[in-house]
Every structure is written in C-alpha cells, then in structure tokens.
Amino acid sequence: MTDIAMIEAAAARAKGVVRETPLLNSPFLDEVAGRPVWVKAEVLQHTGSFKFRGAWSAISALDPELRARGVLAYSSGNHAQGVARAAQLHGIPATILMPADAPRLKIENTRAYEAEVVLYDRAGGEDRNVLGAELRDARGLTLIKPFDEPQVIAGQGTCGLEIAAQAAAEGVTEATVLTCCGGGGLTAGIALALEARAPGMQVRPVEPVGFDDTARSLASGQIQRNTGPEAGYCDAILTPAPGDLTFPVLHRLCGPGLVVTEHEVRAAMRAAFERLKLVIEPGGAVALAAALFHGAALADGPVIATASGGNVDADTFTEALSTAPKP
Amino acid sequence: MTDIAMIEAAAARAKGVVRETPLLNSPFLDEVAGRPVWVKAEVLQHTGSFKFRGAWSAISALDPELRARGVLAYSSGNHAQGVARAAQLHGIPATILMPADAPRLKIENTRAYEAEVVLYDRAGGEDRNVLGAELRDARGLTLIKPFDEPQVIAGQGTCGLEIAAQAAAEGVTEATVLTCCGGGGLTAGIALALEARAPGMQVRPVEPVGFDDTARSLASGQIQRNTGPEAGYCDAILTPAPGDLTFPVLHRLCGPGLVVTEHEVRAAMRAAFERLKLVIEPGGAVALAAALFHGAALADGPVIATASGGNVDADTFTEALSTAPKP
Fold first, then answer.
1. Class for domain A52-143, per CATH?
2. Do domains A4-50+149-323 and A52-143 have the same CATH topology?
3. pLDDT of res. B65
4. Is residue A327 scored above 70 in pLDDT?
5. Do residue B48 and residue A277 have CB atoms under 8 angstroms apart?
6. Which of A208, A283, B70, B76 is within CB 3.0–4.6 Å of B93 for a Cys-Cys bond?
C-alpha cells in the first residue's frame, strides 16, 4: 500500500511535468469563514484537475514494455482526462470508458488528448466492468483505476506534500484540510503525505448531500454505499463507495466527513470566481463550501480547502453564478 | 527613472507579500494559436490584478513618516484595489478617487480594503485632478500614480523578472511577450526586466480597438492621445495616452503595438475559462486575444501573454461566455 516513500518517489517522477499549484487566499473569504481560509488550486493542474497527478504517477511507474501496449480507464471525466493526457505525454495509447451522459466538455477533451473514448449507457444497465475486461484482454491494456490503486494514491499524495510545504512557508502548520471526496484517492493521498510532513493538520473529507458514503463509512467504521442515483450536480466526485484501499487510510487518519448542499456549492463557486479568479466545477467546490459555511463543525484555526477540479460547462458555471447568493 | 536595480530592489521588498503567479499553458491554446502559448496569470495576484505589485512597491519605498500620513490614488478600479490593499497591509489610510461609473465590484472591493472612496462624475466634467489636489493638500497624502511613477514601474517589473525565470525553467528564452497595455506601467516594467534578464524576448503591447493610443504612439514615435470615449468594454486598460515616463521605455524596447476587437477579447475570456480555469476581465484578456488570433502579426516562436486582471462582474463574464464562439 501507499506510504510516504511512494509519495516522495511519485513526486520525483512528477518533477518538471506535474504543476505545483498555488495555495491562494483572500481577505474576503477569511471574512465569510471567520478564520483564515487557504485554497489549494488544483483546477490549475494539467487537464484541469488533480487527477493528472495520479494518472502520471501510475503510468510513469509501469514497466516500459507493458506501458507501451497502452492503458485503460473507466471515468466520468476528470480521471479520463488525466489518464488520456498522461498517456499522450508518454506516447502510448489510451482507451477510456465513459458514461454517455458525462459532461460534454469532459468527453470532448478526453478525445482531444488523443484517447479512444468508448461510451456506455449506465442508465440502461451496461456493465462497464464487463466491457472494460473485454477491451483489456483483447488489447493487452493495463487498467489505471481511478482511486483504489497504490500508485494513483501516491500521485494524489504529491498534492499533500505541496500543501505541507506551502502552508509552512505561510507559517501554517496546524490546520484542518478539507478534501473533495469521491472514492478517496485524493483524500487518502493527502492524509498520508500530511501524516508524515504536517502532523499538526487533520484531513476531513467533504461530500455533497445524497452522496455521503464516506461520511457514513467513517461514522460506522465500515464501508457504506450510496443507494440513490449515480449521477448528480457534483459529477466529478460521485462514486458508489470509498475504496478497499482508501477507506482504511481515511478511517485511520481523517476526522469526520462533512456534507454540503448544492446551494452551498454554488455559493462557493461564485466566491472562487469573485475572490480568487478561479473556475471551480461543482464537485471541486465542496471543500470550499464546507470551509465557508460549515465552520461550526470545524476545529478552530486555519482551514485549507482543495479546489480539486475546474472542468465545468459554461452553462453550468453561468447558472451557478446567477443563482448563488453573493457570499 | 526605473532600471533593473530598482526592479530587483522592488522584488526584494515584495518578498513574502506579492505572489509569484504561475505561468500556465494548455495544448488546446497552442492548437488555436499554432504555436506554444504561455499565460502569466496575474489574475491570481492579490486584489486580482498586477496593480498590487506597483502599489506595494511604491508604498513600501516611501519614507515611513510620510507614508504614515496616508496615500491617494486616482483609478477606475484595479489600481484603486492595489493601492487600497497595499495601504491596508501597511496599516496606513488610503483615499481613492474613482469615477462613479466604474464597475460596481471594483468600487465595493476598494471600500472593503478599508480605503475611503471618493466618487466623481467623469461624464459631467468633474476634474479629478483638482479634486485630488485638494484632498492631497488637506490631508498631507502622497499621490500614488497608476503608471507614470518610477517605483510603480519597478513593481510591475517584478512580473517581468518572474516571466524571465519561469520561461527559462520551461526552456523558453526567445519569445514574444504580449502585454495588456493602458498607460504602459506593466509594459514598461516588463520590458525593462526582460531587457536585463531575457534579452531574447521582445515585448509587444496590446490594446482594444478604439483605444490604440500606444500603438499609434509607437508607430509615430511621439505620444498620441485617444480622442474617443473614455469608457469602454476593456475598462481596466483605457487611458488617454501613454505616460511621459513609460513611453520612452516602450519606444526604445517594444515592437509595434497590436489591436484586438471586443469579439476577440470575449473569445479569449472563454478560452481562459475553458482551458486554464482562469477568470480574466476584458482588459486583462487583450494580450491572450492577440496571442490566439493575431499570430500572423507576430514573429515565429512561443508567445507569452499577460493575463493582467480578473476583476469582472458575473454578468459581464457570463455574457462573454455565452456570446463568444468556442475557440
């Protein structure tokens, strides 16, 4: 399983390729939250989300001969783009299985990174695992899992190394770190990195209402599944359940999960637009929403929120700006 | 007048306060432009524009006793916010004269940085210079000019130092550097910094149609004025003429000016939204517009465009997203 040495090794392989994204703040956000708020701007990562870190880490760690045959990924969008771009930069083929109802921009971008996109109908019950296994076997591809894969978690952990170093440079060594949490790859990676490099920080995963599998899993101590719809406003971070590899890390290292409303997510997107000049997608804004509007549930002191992705259609973004109350 | 030693000194005073903003790129922008495009994301600077650099430089260079009495600025917005925030961080009072028709967000933010905002009616012919002189004399304030001031130019020049170092780290030492140009403070500062630190780069100022005073001045070798309306879509960079201090620098160091349309500006704003996840205001998007759509007028090779500011109302931003063609 992933440990700090694997994360450091992933950071070494990422050097000169993965961007060090800035840790931003604004006195206006501090005022809304009533405490210092820092935003780790992963929307500025290559492909517009942190997923490029994990994809680069996993692909760069493969045996070169195996890697040359190509990689396969299942994803509704950000992992797809991360894998497609990391494969393109390695000069190897990528095949990506995407649900046909994924955001148009994410499908188009994945294709633009020269990946072959295979669409499947998730509402109609097509089983992506069956479809994926057929493709994998026929082409000799290596599956790059979105979160339950040690090298992917190690790649996401490089974001945690940066948080530890950048916060320390600002004089911040004790803080609550809020992560946008789907399957838990980013959350586990950051938690492992901070355990080693910033032990005064506690990670708390954040999810949208109706998709709080991680919060319920942490509360019960056992993996719980979402039973409602598969799709939703925060599409980037909707997964059925925390992973078999990620959950034990979350259970050991994270504080209780937090749950935010769509209304709060829109307000966070608007706040980031106005105060940080960042474009954040709904799933990438849940952590900032918790920072701004759930302070009562957080320990005193600074909060660091990951803005995990920015791949949002213009219509969705416009709608968020127009319906959100001014923060 | 400003020289590289003053710029280096401004950078030393800025350390730990002014943000080093990232130099970003995207394969999708490269494809549109047909060449490598880099964007210097000054929208991520404190107060949402490069103006904080010049304001910090000028205020931090003042004699402490003089500084304690407070500062005065005239500005339609970004310089106002930069001076207000730099004054607030120095713990000194700021008085800002702003036109009553400046963007609402810029007026509100300037007040939120604890500056006293005095509005004047530019259409009605109120003379801000008379008004400003009265306030200055009555209160013993120091005027921080928006561009024609050596320490302000030195502060803007720190952006050029970063461009030189960041581009070199990406292997880029020869490039066209496009600047969003109003009075020429940013352009002159960057040009002076690059003259010393990246002599293989040439600066070319960019302006919106109808406000091409710098392009005409460079073409004629003498300062030319705008004779049309004072206000326009690219509000942040509309000035009557290049400055007496900035123009000689531009004339000596810059290539010909470029002029872009509002349509191109909207398309650049949309491209930055989609491909870089950055919010850029109209006046801050003219350089990227030239990079994307005026390649025929540029020397071969990479182009570096400053995204100089992001202080745009939600309505103006969403209108640009909806009317711009997809790049």
1. alpha beta
2. yes
3. 96
4. no
5. yes
6. B70
Q: pLDDT over 90 for what percent of chain B? A: 86
Interchain proximity B43–A277, CB inside 8 Å: yes
Look at residue A1 and give its three-state secondary structure: coil
- Here the ipTM equals 0.96
- Put simply, the answer to whether B44 touches A22 (Cβ < 8 Å) is yes
CB pairs under 8 A between A and B: 67
Residue B77 has pLDDT above 90, yes or no: no
Total count of residues recorded for chain B: 327
Residue range B4-50+149-323, CATH number: 3.40.50.1100
Contacts A319 to B, Cβ<8 Å: none
Chain B contact present for A274, CB below 8 A: yes
Residue A65 clears pLDDT 90, i.e. is over it: yes
A271, closest residue in chain B (CA to CA): B314
